[in-house]
């Protein structure tokens, strides 16, 4: 599936950054099976396009993602918990992805580019899961962030029971999950889930500015290796992570990016990995 085939997402690339926009504003960007497939394809294109170094994920209109649409949840409940999976084809998992991490929602951890969620308005349920699997979260001060699950009789969905405590600690994860309280951006930052808070109109520009700076001044090869080190290697044995880091170092010493970095260091300026 190519970006031109997307019906519920927009995908655009500029200055080393792929901007992925959930585009169902009339339904507050409610998560759907079609959107999930398109998101997988968007991440695949970002991962395999050498022009992309960072991904920014946002929502059209005033919301990030209000979760699964209530009509869909009602149909699943009325059907005794059964549902029909989306039949559109999916892209392959990123090369080298461990078998145990080959899950739809885990793909943002596996791709070679950092993912930044730019959150304004509602971020609930499936939207919360989506943002949790990003590397960073920028949020509006007046965003409305909630896990939702406990108020719907649901568990923590799609592995965030594993990921969220590793991000913000068990106790803070329990606060978000057990209470399903609605947090604004400041409260979510206090709990460690959000990294940067802005006025609503400034969230996306701030995320794009940060993303562009990463794309330009941080080596794409370094980002690729570090992403895997943090999101995959760090959860395995120390000896394996250490051995692979040495292998990475030996490979990096032969990569063109090190010459760009050393030249900038010698000239006492920031490297420009997009231009050089």
| Number of helices in the DSSP assignment | 11
* Distance separating the two termini: 32 Å
User: What's the CATH H-level superfamily name of the largest domain?
Assistant: 2-enoyl-CoA Hydratase, Chain A, domain 1
The CATH architecture of the largest domain can be given as Alpha-Beta Complex
Return the CATH class of the largest domain. Answer: Alpha Beta
Q: What is the helix/strand order?
A: EEHEHHEEHEEHHHEHHHH
Q: Which structural category fits the helices and strands?
A: alpha/beta
Number of strands: 8
What is the overall silhouette?
globular
- In the predicted model, the low-confidence regions spanning at least 5 consecutive residues are none
Strand content: 5-15%
Task: Give me the CATH fold name of the largest domain.
Answer: 2-enoyl-CoA Hydratase, Chain A, domain 1
Cα radius of gyration in angstroms: 19 Å
Main β sheet profile:
6 strands, mixed
Summed over residues and divided by their number, the pLDDT gives a mean of: 94
Family: Belongs to the enoyl-CoA hydratase/isomerase family.
Organism: Sporichthya brevicatena
Protein name: Enoyl-CoA hydratase-related protein
């Amino acid at each position: 599936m190519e970006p031109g085939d997307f019906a519920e997402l927009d995908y655009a690339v500029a200055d080393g950054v792929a901007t992925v926009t959930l585009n169902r504003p009339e339904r507050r960007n409610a998560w759907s099976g079609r959107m999930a497939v398109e998101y997988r394809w968007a991440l695949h294109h970002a991962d395999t396009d050498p022009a992309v170094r960072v991904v920014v994920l946002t929502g059209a209109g005033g919301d990030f993602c209000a979760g699964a649409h209530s009509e869909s949840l009602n149909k699943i409940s009325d059907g005794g918990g059964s549902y029909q999976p989306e039949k559109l084809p999916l892209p392959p998992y990123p090369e080298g992805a461990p078998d145990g991490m080959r899950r739809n929602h885990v793909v943002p951890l596996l791709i070679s580019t950092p993912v930044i969620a730019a959150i304004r308005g509602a971020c609930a349920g499936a939207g919360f899961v989506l943002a949790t699997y990003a590397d960073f979260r920028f949020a509006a001060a007046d965003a409305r962030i909630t896990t939702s699950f406990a108020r719907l009789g649901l568990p923590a969905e799609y592995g965030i029971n594993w990921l969220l405590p590793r991000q913000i600690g068990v106790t803070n994860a329990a606060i978000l999950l057990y209470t399903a309280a609605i947090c604004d951006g400041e409260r979510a930052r206090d709990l460690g889930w959000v990294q940067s808070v802005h006025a609503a109109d400034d969230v996306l520009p701030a995320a794009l500015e940060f993303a562009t700076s990463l794309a330009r001044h941080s080596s794409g090869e370094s980002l690729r290796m570090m992403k895997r080190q943090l999101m995959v290697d760090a959860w395995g044995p120390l000896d394996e992570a250490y051995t692979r880091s040495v292998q990475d170092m030996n490979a990096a010493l032969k990569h063109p990016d090190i010459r760009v970095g050393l030249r900038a260091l010698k000239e006492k300026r920031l490297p420009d990995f997009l231009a050089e």
